[in-house]
């Protein structure tokens, strides 16, 4: 009776638990452990732990803990290790080991007890928080530099422009302070973040440099003008536009620019849709989405540009059969200077090359355009299950992939959809 009660308690645990004898056979395992390891009871009854997991180098850290116990008689109070289960999922586990003693009156040990907890989500949050805090730390430097330099200008000349810069950047520092407090309290942040202050403070900084360095004023003004052209458009140019024709033109230009790639770019635009907008901004936004899609789609894949009405809105959609975005990168891709692939894999390639990546500015520009010209940016993405981590490389061609055999199979493993959504106010 006592054994059955103990087994019921162990089986109800949320943490995984299993016991191995010193030959590597499972003598006990609970439901949570089966789920985390991706195993069935039939598999553990027919195989040793070594037969199931020893062949995968991804599990070396976990296996070392077991060997320390079985071979060296050493246990671990707590250790965090990566683990790849039988279903191919990558987990972060917190592991504790101890020895199972023989019954009272008998000497020695009968096996090793392994208790482990899935900390994948908390580790991902920790990495995201670390990235965001690093970003905020970096972002603080620019407004502080502007304020410091502007104060010197105020002391000597009492310039109104310098005073206005100080006010704007002090406000930005207050906003950053609130963001940092949110992060430290573990609240969700960044969903509705405005990027216009970032753009304004950068333009302020360039203007300040032009004032302080007359010899380089022409170069700084050219840089400021270039940023204005890249990130902004004249709202006075808003007019009634046939966006169906505009999208066809943009898609044709993208197709010509990516002619060196084996990616099929198609359009699904069945009717003419007219909307009041700034054509220059819409062209840049649509072209940026198509370029981003092609650069993230391996050769042999597809990118589709579509246009449709939905209730009181118009939706421009760019869908790809590419590699998709990892969960921890999805909330940061609109921040600019952020690579959704591992930094070690990134290299600057030609535009439209697979994995070209640029500097992460296309999506940032689209986000800023959305704030200025009143459209919403939405996206859905599924990371290719064969390369779940940012450090996992895609060969860049379906024909070179060891996991699939054709484009239909590739399309089922991952991909992204980005949408520009215009409300009824624009129609």
Q: How much strand content do the residues show?
A: 15-25%
Give the CATH class of the largest domain.
Alpha Beta
Supply the number of helical segments.
Answer: 13
Name the poorly predicted regions. Answer: 1-5, 186-192, 336-348
Concise synopsis of the structure shown:
With 427 residues, the chain is α+β, with helices and mostly antiparallel strands. It has helices spanning 2-11, 31-37, 41-46, 49-53, 60-70, 120-157, 160-184, 196-212, 217-231, 243-257, 279-295, 361-373, 407-413; strands at 16-20, 26-29, 79-84, 90-101, 109-118, 239-242, 264-268, 274-277, 302-310, 313-320, 375-382, 415-422.
Please explain how this structure is put together:
With 427 residues, the protein is of the alpha+beta class. It folds into three domains: 2-118, 2-Layer Sandwich (Beta-Lactamase); 123-231, no CATH class; 237-426, Heat Shock Protein 90 (2-Layer Sandwich). The protein has 13 helices and twelve strands. The protein has helices spanning 2-11, 31-37, 41-46, 49-53, 60-70, 120-157, 160-184, 196-212, 217-231, 243-257, 279-295, 361-373, 407-413, and strands at 16-20, 26-29, 79-84, 90-101, 109-118, 239-242, 264-268, 274-277, 302-310, 313-320, 375-382, 415-422. It has a five-stranded antiparallel β-sheet, sandwiched between helices. Strands 7-9-10-12-11 form a five-stranded mixed β-sheet. It has a two-stranded antiparallel sheet with strand order 6-8. A hairpin with a 5-residue loop joins β3 and β4. α6 packs parallel to α8 (196-212), α8 (196-212) packs antiparallel against α9 (217-231) and α10 crosses α11 (279-295). The longest helix has 38 residues, at 120-157. It is globular. The protein starts with a helix and ends in a 5-residue tail after the last strand.
């Amino acid at each position: 009776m006592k054994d059955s009660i103990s087994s019921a308690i162990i089986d109800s645990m949320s943490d995984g638990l299993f016991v191995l004898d010193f030959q590597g056979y499972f003598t006990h395992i609970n439901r949570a452990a089966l789920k985390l390891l991706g195993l069935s009871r039939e598999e553990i009854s027919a195989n040793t732990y070594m037969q199931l997991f020893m062949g995968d180098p991804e599990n070396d850290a976990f296996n070392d803990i077991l060997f320390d116990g079985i071979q060296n008689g050493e246990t671990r109070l707590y250790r965090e290790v990566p683990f790849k289960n039988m279903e191919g999922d990558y987990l972060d586990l917190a592991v504790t080991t101890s020895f199972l003693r023989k019954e009272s009156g008998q000497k020695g040990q009968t096996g090793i007890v392994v208790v482990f907890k899935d900390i994948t989500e908390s580790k991902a949050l920790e990495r995201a928080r670390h990235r965001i805090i690093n970003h905020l730390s970096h972002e603080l430097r620019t407004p502080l530099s502007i304020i410091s330099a502007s104060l010197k200008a105020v002391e000597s000349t009492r310039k109104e422009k310098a005073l206005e810069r100080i006010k704007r950047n002090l406000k930005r520092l207050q906003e950053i302070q609130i963001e940092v407090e949110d992060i430290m309290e573990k609240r969700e942040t960044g969903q509705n973040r405005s990027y216009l202050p970032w753009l304004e403070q950068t333009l302020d900084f360039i203007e300040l440099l032009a004032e302080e360095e007359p010899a380089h004023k022409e170069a700084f003004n050219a840089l400021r003008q270039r940023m204005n052209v890249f990130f902004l458009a004249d709202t006075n140019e808003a007019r009634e536009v046939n966006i169906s024709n505009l999208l066809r033109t943009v898609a044709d230009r993208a197709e010509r620019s990516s002619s060196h790639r084996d990616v099929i770019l198609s359009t699904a635009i069945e009717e003419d849709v007219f909307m009041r907008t700034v054509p220059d901004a819409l062209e840049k936004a649509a072209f940026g989405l198509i370029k981003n899609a092609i650069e993230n789609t391996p050769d042999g894949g597809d990118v589709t540009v579509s246009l449709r009405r939905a209730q009181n809105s118009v939706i421009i959609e760019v869908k790809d059969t590419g590699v998709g975005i990892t969960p921890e990168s999805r909330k940061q891709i609109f921040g600019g200077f952020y690579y959704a692939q591992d930094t070690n894999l990134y290299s600057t390639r030609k535009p439209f090359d697979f994995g070209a990546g640029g500097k992460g500015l296309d999506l940032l520009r689209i986000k800023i355009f959305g704030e200025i010209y009143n459209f919403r940016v939405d996206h859905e993405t599924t990371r290719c299950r064969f390369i779940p981590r940012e450090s996992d490389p895609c060969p860049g061609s379906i024909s070179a992939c060891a996991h699939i055999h054709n484009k239909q199979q590739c399309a089922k493993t991952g991909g992204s959809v980005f949408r520009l959504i215009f409300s009824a106010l624009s129609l």
